[in-house]
Amino acid sequence: MKKYSDLIEQTFDFPSEEFKVDGKYLSFHDIPLKEIIEEHGTPLRISYLPKIKENIQKSRNWFETAIKKHEYAGNYTYCYCTKSSHFSFVLEEVLANDGHIETSSSFDIPIIKNLYQAGKLGKDLMIICNGFKRPLYIQYISELINEGFTNCIPIIDNLNELGFYEDNVSGSYQVGIRIAADEEPNFEFYTSRLGVRYSSILDLYKEQIEPSRAKLKMLHFFINTGIRDTAYYWSELSRFMYKYCELKKICPELDTVDIGGGFPVKTSLNFEFDYDYVVDQIIENIKWICDKNDVPVPNIITEFGSFTVSESGAHIYSILDQKLQNDKELWYMIDGSFITHLPDTWGTNQKFILLAVNKWDHQFQKVNIGGLTCDSMDYYNSEAHSSEVFLPLIEEDENLYIGLFHTGAYQESLGGYGGIQHCLIPAPKHVLIDKSEDGEFTTSVFSEEQSYEGMLQTLGY
Question: pLDDT below 50 — which residues of the chain?
């Protein structure tokens, strides 16, 4: 008899660092998921906080190792881009591990002030302010700088932005420039809508920044694919660094590059990415280009969002029932919705790691997984490594539970956390899991399952 455990062990290198099976039950970072389900029920959203710290430390180690190896004269700073998850427990974990912050819109700034008032950060924190800025965002940035947040650095995204800071910021201040990189060759547009085009960079500096009270601190580089070991990525990074060298020769204050775009995260148990090799190549390439152009190497900033928080998250569901809709399409119906809880599965066809929580000692079958909304697109029927989904058979011994893992980034913000969901499917209960110094797990409820009262109030009833 082929068991579900046989399928997983023959398909992947299993067990892994994150996932193990004790008999027929799955554990995630040694967390006994069956016990969590028994205590809190389903649907359930889990955030495992130590994973945030672990990934911050991993990134620092990769860059510091490469800097030492290549005798690189610049330093490295880890920033977290808040748009991946704005939750307080994420920001507090980042700050507790000496992370800095990258913002995207005006309402990020009150979060910064709230954390400062709570004693979670100091005015020396690096705050990189990205995005195409509406007046309120520019006002808030100016207020931060005037209040003594000296490392708050607005990144100029268009040619008209600097005038707002000149009118509203007292004294000298730092700025950066985002360069509009070319998009991936198969993208619908040739050049990013964000940033300043390459041909305008020198004029922007000479005509606006140099005569102003602003000091150009950094150049910002971002491509949508994130950091990948591809010819496209290396070509765009080299082009960017040549522009940095050109500008550095006329702007002595320029000493930092922000290589935006995140690291990839695991979407399958067979995921492979040589992080330390890619970091080594980034450092080596930047140093080589700077040496060739006879300019000092820059300090390096990364702004990792998904890499910071994604792998800390999981969603757990019960299988409510099964439905055979024709001779070959078997549906497992979950007590939640992919469209509302995990909108990336619907909007971008994003895949997550899918595993059964129990019944690993049972036989398995090919299934489609259906969500609770009435939308025909509320389903999950393929994985990153396969065009099919296999799960244990539903039998009478106990209910079947499944987990989707590495779901910690973007899903709540894209789904409209606390708001109105398709078919009024409530947001699931959310539990935080931490680990004490003696290795014991601690759990706390961040939020209960969304109530109908809150929805009715939002709808005006």
Answer: none
